[in-house]
Amino acid sequence: MTTPTNQTLSARLALAFQPLDKRAFGVAIGVATGSLIALATVVVLFQGGDPINLGLLAEYFAGYRVSWSGVAIGFFWGFVAGFAAGWFVAFWRNFIVAASVFAVRTRADLAQSRDFLDHI
User: Fold this and answer.
1) pTM for the complete prediction?
2) How far is CA 4 from CA 8, 11, 81, in A?
C-alpha cells in the first residue's frame, strides 16, 4: 500500500531523473553566454579601455572586435558556442542518468532471480 508520502517521494524521484530537453538547455545556455559576452563588451566600451583584454575573443570568434558592432557579433558567437556546449552537456547528462538507471535496475533484477533454480 502506498502512502501519500511515498507518492510524493516517487513523484520527486521521477522528476529528478527525467531527461533534460537538449534544445531548450542549449538555447538557455546560449542566451546566457551570448548575453554575458555582449554585456562584457558594453562594459568595456563604457570604461573606455580594454583592461580585461576582451579583444582576445577575436581569436575564437570571427569578426569580433571590442566595438558596438562587436556587441552583436559577440552575442551571436556566444550563443552558438553556448548552445553547442549546453546541448552536449544535456546529451551526456541524459546518457549517464539512463545508463545508471539501467545498471541499477539490472542489478536489482539479477539479485531477485539469483536463487531462481533453488525453487524448482
Assistant:
1) 0.79
2) 6, 10, 44
